[in-house]
Amino acid sequence: MTADAAGPARNTPIQAPPIQSTEAAYRRLVDLISDVLEGRGGLDRLSMMMGDVPAIFEAMGAAGFADEGVMLVLDPAGRVLSRNAAAARRLALEVGDELGAVVLTPGSHAAFLETVRRTGEAGALFVADMRERTLLLAGMAPERGGDILLVECRRGQDTALEARLTAVFGLIPSELRVLFALMDGRDIEAIAAETGRKPATIRQLVKAVLAKMGVHSQTQAVALAYSLMLTAERLSDSGPRLHAPSAASLLEPTADGPVPVHRFGRPGGFPVLLLHGALFGIAAQPDIRHAAHTLGLDVIAPVRPGYGAAPLAPGADPLKLSAARIDAILDRQGITRAVVVAHDIGTRFAIDFALRRPDRVAGIVAAPATPPMRGWAQTSDMPLRHRVNAWASQKMPALMDKIVGLGITQVARKGVDLIPGLVFSDCDFDRDLWSDPRFAPSLQESFALVSGQKGLGFRHDMRLTNEDWSDLVPRVPCEVLLLHGERSQTVSRQAVSDLAGLLPAGRFQPVGDAGHTLPLSHGDMVFRQALLLAGRAGLSERL
Fold first, then answer.
1. DSSP 243-303
2. Under a CB-based contact definition with an 8 Å cutoff, are residues 13 and 48 in contact?
3. 299, 264 in Cβ contact below 8 A?
4. Residues 6+ apart with CB under 8 A from 420
């Protein structure tokens, strides 16, 4: 498909339609791209509408900010692990920053961390936003000594919170009114004036509230109330949620900076190099880690360039950079040769590394495989949004950047539970499977990987996914097993089968009850295939 399919140019410029609503304008944009993809013309209208694209995405990105509260996740040392869009915008905090940089009282940060870590009780912290306004954050650690969740203490009464406070602490209506007034920032005298009671009566009610809640100050009572609200929202099916990403177990030094590396399985076992795709945090799944250990595999999973905290400098080639870092990491671990397990676009990174360092790659298991894009006919069976994304990543990268940025903002604001629907819209099997609560760690890890550098690595992957690199395939020297989920709607079955035919030692293996989420649903099978391949390649345990 080329631009010539758009039809003849018009003599009179077509004015882009007025934006009646943000969502309608975005749907119009998607429809125009679809027309171009299908050869129905529309490229002239699309080019005219490009002037409205910045306004469309600015409006979509800003939607809902007015009512959004600050939410953060800290590690036990007080460093930011994850934050929603409001925290990024209002506090100017990036992942890895210390919250102590914005607290109002120098010693309060350390005291807050000590209280939450040591006692497991809720704590409160005052910080200043970019406009020098004071925010009260309530924090707690769901697991003692673990990551700390903070939420802004918002102004105003919450009827659902009222019911929780009544059920948990037995507060009566008069005590609830006083507590909500404190949460709204009013002092004793103001509450007395508003309720027509004496200040002494209000003080007695405050003492009763503190006693029932088991705290010693008004600030602690307010923090505990909001922490209770946050905990209930995290356990319910609704409300904003922010999850802490799992931490990589190693930080390996390389020539251009430290690289986070997951290491799991059995130390000294059969060496397996895991190259992640954009979407699957398989290293975070406890059952998959257990499977690797049971099979005697020593799995090394470096974070690829542009993801998480793995640096990717402007203009750098992520394929070349990834290969150099893998080389350095394997050297440091004393591993000369390994089987590579690749997920999704990790297929191309695995094949690239095998071509650069054939002596180090004993074989490749691609699960699922992502083949070269040899023509737009490969997208014919994909849902419309996936076709649009594939086209935009090649023809309009600036638009693709906006789409990725908007998705990250939505997930940061509303929670990682949005990811399956955003990634697998109109792909029911994969969307429903990834929404299973069992795979919550994968959602957390995936978002941490993609959002760490504002989608930099993911945007590069979108370009690489839609390139034709089939000329490299006949030179791959090792055995390559290409797994494909038969229920996948995002990758062409025929294209994966054709890739196996181009490889000198390629095998195509469809998996009937799997989709593109195959590494999550069939992680143990993937690792069994890696073990079999290691045996055929003559690898041995290094115990």
1. -PPPPPSEEE--TTS-EEEEEEE-TTSEEEEEE--SS--GGG-HHHHHHHHHTTEEEEEEP
2. yes
3. yes
4. 430, 431, 432, 434, 435, 443
Q: Which of 287, 458, 260, 495 is nearest to 376 (CA)?
A: 495
| pLDDT tens digit sequence for 21-68 | 555 665 666 666 656 555 566 556 655 555 555 555 555 444 443 345
CA 163 centroid distance within chain: 33
Rounded CA-CA distance 54/77 in Å is: 39
Instruction: State the sign of the Cα–Cα–Cα–Cα dihedral 405, 408, 410, 413.
Output: negative
CA pair distance 368, 345, nearest whole angstrom = 9
Residue with tokens 């503190």: 210
A 10 A CB-CB count for 400 gives 23
Taken in order 311, 468, 39, 10, the sign of the CA dihedral is positive
Partnered with residue 129 across adjacent β-strands are: none
Give the span between the Cα atoms of 308 and 408, in whole angstroms. Answer: 13
Which ranges constitute the DSSP H helices of 333-418? 346-356, 384-395, 397-414
pLDDT digits (tens, 9 = 90+) for 174-186: 888 888 888 766 7
74 forms beta bridges with 80, 148
d(CA 36, CA 49): 14
Residue owning tokens 């978002």: 447
By the 10 Å C-beta count (0-12 exposed, 13-18 middle, 19+ buried), 242 is classed as: buried
Q: What's the gap between Cα 376 and its chain centre?
A: 28
* Closest among 256, 478, 509 to 353, alpha carbons compared: 478
The residue whose two tokens read 């631009």 is 3
